[in-house]
Amino acid sequence: MTTVASTHAAASAEPTRRDFLYIATGAVGAVGIAGAIWPFISQMGPDAATIAAGAPVDFDLSPVAEGQIVKLFWRGNLVFVRHRTTDEIKLAQSTDLSSLRDQQADADRVKVGKEQWLVVYGSCTHLGCVPLGNEGEFRGWMCPCHGSVFDTSGRIRQGPAPTNLPVPPYIFTSDTSIRIG
User: Fold this and answer.
1) What's the predicted TM-score (pTM) here?
2) Does the annotation count 126 as an active-site position?
């Protein structure tokens, strides 16, 4: 009799077909529940177009030559990145603020230690036209539609535009790259 009981105990320790079916059914059920819940969880996140519209833009400054203006887009808005020359910086810094309609110092429009880089939105503050770079009396930008003239710091100097070209939020991520947004 002892041999029959020990044989039965040994047989019950071995996995049976029923044990396999329980495990397989549980695994399929867990996968099914996860598959049913996943769409509800994923729909709670923002749409891909929304993420792309507000995503920051990284820009490498190293290929931009001195005196060059580069155009790029962030959140559907045109942005100018200007690599200013030493003469342009000196002229912008020495401008008498009382002669400006929208009085803002050049130092308030650039980052400390990176004065050679100016980043501004690329639409005229009068009616939203795109000004042309290196044009006008002050060699900054000039709006060809209505005649607004901006200096090399993006400040309004002549014409109907009421304010300076706005500066978007940006940071330097290294000496040669910026992140807008």
Assistant:
1) 0.70
2) no
